[in-house]
Amino acid sequence: MTRRPLPRALRPFEVRQFRFLAGALTLSLFGTGTWLVAVTWQVIRLGGGPSQLSQVATASAAGVLAAVLFGGVLADRVPQRLILITLEGLKATLVTLAAWAALTGALELGHLVALAFVIGATDGFFYPAYSALLPNVLPSEQLLAANGTEGVLRPALMTAAGPAVASMAIAAHSPGLAFVIVAASQVLAVVGLLLMGRTVFEHDDDGGRSGAAGVLRDVRDGFVYMARTPWLLGTLLFATAYVLVVVGPIEVLLPFAVRDQAGGGPGEYAVVLASYGIASAVGSLAVASWRLPRRYLTTMVLFWGIGAAPLALVGITTSLGVMATAAVLMGVTGGAAQVVWGTLLQRRVPKAMLGRVSSLDFFVSALLMPVSMAVAGPAGEAFGLRPVFLLAGLLPAVFAVVAIALARMARDELAHPLDLTIPEAEQAGRSTGQATGTDTATVTEVVAEAPLDRPAAPQDA
Fold it and tell me: The whole model's pTM is what?
């Protein structure tokens, strides 16, 4: 009897290593979501306001920026699974110490700022390693579905399940109890990564690139690749502007909008986050169940740009329901865009460069995140929440249109289709060449970047 194939979105789970990797990612993301709410209400418990929360959020963003470029180099030089095991173990240790300090009353704001910086740095190493590991675990045709899985897990756990558990723990006892839950989830994530077993590790020969000079040369090569790749540069510059106007208001001011405008507390704040998380999971799952859109660059950037518009409602409403609805609309579009983006990097960037390019994704797009975090709190106190959220909702659409035009994304996505078989790609290349004057080399590049039939997922090394 012929076995019925799994739905497209679930096919990566046929690979044993991916099942363990997805389990470890689930536990890690759950811990992160619990941590984000716990640290927010720990700051408030210590008598802090928007400015104090800005300090903690800024420290976390600064930690990411300080580490992420080196994280990309490390991911291209060291087996990525080993990096993930080390990071999850370090986070478990640090959060355990924070839990002890919180439960004994010894935790102070300065401790939270320092801890946020270090945990942010671990995130800076985590993302490039995970992104570079995935193509070594799965064949290329399953990467969209795997990124969809991450797109479902990340919001569902970071903005739904994690915050919900954190708010219950805070209501039952204190943020310290939520810290204990975070530490336990990180320990279990380490166990999952250990059970996963060794994986294939593809990398370039160092060629003498040792020591600090070699590391800096690797970082430089990543920037050169970005500068010479218009679709990548355009998207990352758009993301930089997007982060500047959107992330600070969400991370710093949203808890106070819930509290001051809607009269809510940790539970109501968790509802808004959960609305975003569930909607983002739905958007991710939808994209993972389909082929990549033909206009993948345009679709992705417009999803992010136009999808931020509902944020303008947050500053003017006193209704928790309206805030949750705005979060739903942002979540669906943002989740869909993120899945396309992750797959795009893994399909069009050479494997030996993927760690560094993934780190550049984090670095360039988050370059102004500390500024956004640092400015959001004081701006909210000085001008009020309404104008800050209004700008955060309306400006990204303008940034999106500018990025699409300047980077010529519409032309690029037709010249490099990712949703076609090789014969279809050849025809697309000929059509594009006739329309735009592209030569035979472009047609060859189109075919090279089209989906190919890959062998089964790599076996354990």
Answer: 0.66
